[in-house]
Amino acid sequence: MIISVASGKGGTGKTTVSTNLAVSIDREVKLFDCDVEEPNAHLFLNPEFENSTPVFTFVPKIDADRCNGCGKCAEICRFNALAVLGKKVLVFPELCHSCEGCRDICPEDAVGEDARELGVIDSGHRNGIFFVQGCMRIGEAMSPPLIRHVRSHARPGDLVIIDAPPGTSCPAINAMKGTDFVLMVTEPTPFGLHDLKLAVEAVKVLDIPCGLVVNRSDIGDRHLWDYAEQEGLPILLEIPFDRSIAEVYSRGQLLVEEIPSWRPIFARLYDAIVDTIETRRSIQ
Amino acid sequence: MKEIVIISGKGGTGKTSLTAAFAALSSNHVLCDADVDAADLHLLLAPKIKQQTDFIGGSIASIRPADCTRCGICIEHRRFSAISDDFVVNPIDCEGCGVCVTFCPEQAIDFPPQKCGEWYISDTRFGPMVHARLGIAEENSGKLVSLIRKQARDIAEDNGRELIITDGPPGIGCPVIASITGATAVLVIVEPSVSGLHDMQRVVDLARHFRIPVLICINKFDLNPDMSATITTKAEQAGLQIVGRIPFNPAFTKAMVEGITLTEYRQADPDLLTLVSTIWQTIVQSDALQKKQAESILPIINT
User: Fold this and answer.
1) In this complex, do A140 and B58 lie within 8 Å of one another by their Cβ atoms?
2) Mutant choice from A46, A105, A250, A254 vs B, greatest count of B C-beta within 10 A
3) What is the chain B residue with the closest CA to A193?
4) CB–CB contact B38 A141 (8 Å)
5) Which of A178, A236, B187, B202 is the most exposed place for a label (fewest CB within 10 A)?
């Protein structure tokens, strides 16, 4: 089972929920940090990293001896990563999406393989949790390929928790799609609700069951509860605003370790997720 | 003309609330909401839309079953797992590379351009604003960001407005790169937490990668004074100007609930309003925004 922890708005508490949930479940669990632009889960989990592997993606390399400047490669590239100047082909590797169309189309077999570093995949353990994160290279624009690399560490039968990036576009979609449940972390403010609605629409497109965690549940207003009821979204956990929780977070500590009364609450959150998935299955 | 882009790396540090507060304190500017993925600035500024335009992003492949001979050539060329073994394209996985379209011997694959969102030119009580809405689960957010920033520049030029205030997206990826390239300076809003510091360092490195001067503002600094001190030290060591430290204050959320900027919120603590106003003046007069900072002296602080 794969649970993705997502949100439309950033800074609502995805990492807090995913790390505390992972350490509170009484079985073997994998935690994947798919917020590869700003991976933070390791700061709270403090895993011992055992592996650190740079990950690369295909970009074209033009063999000038073979190339006759026909321009077919630039023509097929929809991402403007290739341009022909006179008889010379220029490559803009940062724009390449690695579709390899240029290599497939070249009649002279003049397109070889070069590599662009996407970032680094780190993995390690802590207390029985297998942790994997992607850390995108500074200056790299595309996070989905690195997100897919992180997710490739899942095996059938694993229990996986994914800490997803914020938003509703390709990075968030790549972290959520194909998961069994989306745990949406939000806050009851106008920004929180507005971005939650966008994220819930994205989850509907993906057709994945979804439940909510309301963080800082006593700030803002009550419109979120009306929306949740109207959409049939179960609220699985409410975390009130508490300066001591904010301080624990700011120091990079786990809530369930600093305030142990939270551990059974996060364990029950996992049970509630399992129940929600089963209820939906039985309805279908 | 100058442009300041407000970013943070980490989400939820207060970018949009502060952008709106600054908008209310500034004059002769154009506003731009470059967080097209989860735009929120309009919730505080209630823009009146004057012009609405479809954003046509990339194309998505679609196989016509009647013309498909199931030869399998498209599957040989697929790279994004978007074509199923029974020759149906999953639009969410399709990257829009069009390689299958080119190679299909039956020309059985359509490749229609997609409407990926909308963008707007609006009036607000604090001047003109350009903003957008990316469609659900759509790609090409970087392209849309570049487009609306260009619109904001055009409006500023046509109307003799000297400053563009741009609310940026979280992260360091394509929409952030599209938001900051060519800007005069970026303002990084950081919160005092281990995550805030970590993410600040990455986004500062990104700005420096593109040679853009950086200003730092610590928000909710009193939630962890020690961490605020660490952030201050790191920023100063890197030669970054800290424009201010703002304490945690529920007035930001209360103003948001009212749908107004902090500057307009009547119950706000006058000291807080003075502080935010002073910070805005500091930003406007900073060397970074006045282009007095030599690019060559910018070191990279964390690679």
Assistant:
1) no
2) A250
3) B40
4) no
5) A178
Q: What angle do CA B9, B121, A197 make, to 5 degrees?
A: 55
Record: contact A166-B194, CB cut-off 8 A: no
Nearest Cβ partner for A143 among B96, B102, B173: B173
Rounded Cα distance, A131 and A54, in Å: 16
Report residue A281's pLDDT band, with 50, 70 and 90 as the boundaries: confident
What is the distance in angstroms between the CA of the first residue and the CA of the last residue of chain B?
Answer: 32
Mean of the pLDDT values across residues B6-29?
A: 97
How confident is residue B296, by pLDDT bands cut at 50, 70 and 90?
very low
A138-191 tens-digit pLDDT:
999 999 999 999 999 999 999 999 999 999 999 999 999 999 999 999 999 999
Which residue's entry shows tokens 């500074």? Answer: A138
> What residues of chain B lie within 8 A of the CB of A10, using their CB?
10-12, 38, 170
Mean pLDDT, residues A126-137: 96
CB spacing of B97 vs A78 below 8 angstroms:
yes
Nearest CA in chain B to A246: B223
Q: Which pLDDT score, from 0 to 100, does residue B302 have?
A: 43
Cβ-contact A84, A69 below 8 angstroms? yes
Which residue's structure tokens are 């990036």? A165
Residue B219, strand partner residues: B246
State pTM to two decimals: 0.95
- Write the single-letter amino acid at A51: N
- A180-237 pLDDT, tens digit each: 999 999 999 999 999 999 999 999 999 999 999 999 999 999 999 999 999 999 999 9
**Sign of the alpha-carbon torsion through A62, A67, A69, A72:** negative
CA terminus-to-terminus distance, chain A: 18
Residue B301 has pLDDT above 60, yes or no: no
Residues A81, A95: contact at Cβ < 8 Å?
Answer: yes
Q: Residues of B numbered 272-301 whose beta carbons fall under 8 angstroms of chain A's beta carbons: which are they?
A: none
Strands A29-33 and A160-163: parallel
ipTM score assigned to the predicted complex: 0.95
Q: Which of A15, A101, A199 sits opposite B195 (nearest CB)?
A: A15
Q: C-alpha angle with apex B118: B114 to B121, nearest 5 degrees?
A: 150
- Give the one of B138, B224, B256 whose C-beta lies nearest to A250's C-beta: B224
pLDDT (0 to 100) of residue B293: 59
- Strands, E assignment, A202-263: 210-215, 235-239
- Residue B19's Cα: distance from chain center in Å? 11
Average pLDDT, chain B: 94
Residue count of chain A, please give it. Answer: 284
- Which residues 32-71 of chain B have a CB within 8 Å of chain A? 37-38, 40, 43, 58-59
Cross-chain Cβ contact A98/B79 below 8 Å? yes
pLDDT at B36 over 60: yes
**Inter-chain contacts counted by CB atoms under 8 A, chains A and B:** 184
